[in-house]
Write a structure and sequence with these properties.
146 residues; mainly alpha; two-stranded antiparallel ribbon
């Protein structure tokens, strides 16, 4: 017997005192409906589909944000493992290079990596060194290539 639509089932709580003091959730059987008999039912189902579509889109967006966060956290850990004393400066140098190359996405990535290194690293960080790195990368970017 093919199922055309399955409506959302209702959930009924059973009192813990009724079943040896253990909480139990009883799910009523899903109502199975034939072809849509009225427009009202169609609207409700479409609204549910839109809600689920929005929910899945939001869930996908959140997962993408998590993947990006893991990406720059991994980059920060890798720089710290390579050389803990210069990890922050290496990330700042990569951010400056990307900035002067006009690569906005790479700049944001390396800026986030630098922030993550600053957050988890114990090495001292000097803003004057960062300024000199940026100046050096700016001079390098202005040199004629060739």
């Amino acid at each position: 017997m093919p199922f055309n639509r399955i409506l959302v089932s209702s959930i009924e709580m059973v009192s813990p005192s009724e079943i040896l003091a253990t909480p139990v959730i009883v799910v009523a059987a899903a109502a199975i409906v034939g072809p849509a008999s009225s427009r009202t039912e169609n609207r409700g189902i479409r609204a549910g589909q839109i809600t689920m579509g929005a929910f899945s889109a939001i869930t996908a967006w959140i997962e993408r944000r998590r993947q990006l966060r893991r990406l720059f956290q991994d980059g920060a850990r890798e720089l710290i493992e390579r050389d803990p004393a210069t990890a922050y400066y290496d990330a700042q140098r990569a951010a400056a290079r990307a900035r002067f190359a006009g690569d906005g996405q790479a700049f944001l990535h390396w800026a986030k990596v630098a922030a993550e290194v600053a957050r988890i690293s114990t090495a001292p960080m000097d803003y004057e060194v960062v300024k000199s790195i940026v100046d050096e990368e700016e001079r390098r970017a202005k040199l004629p290539s060739g």
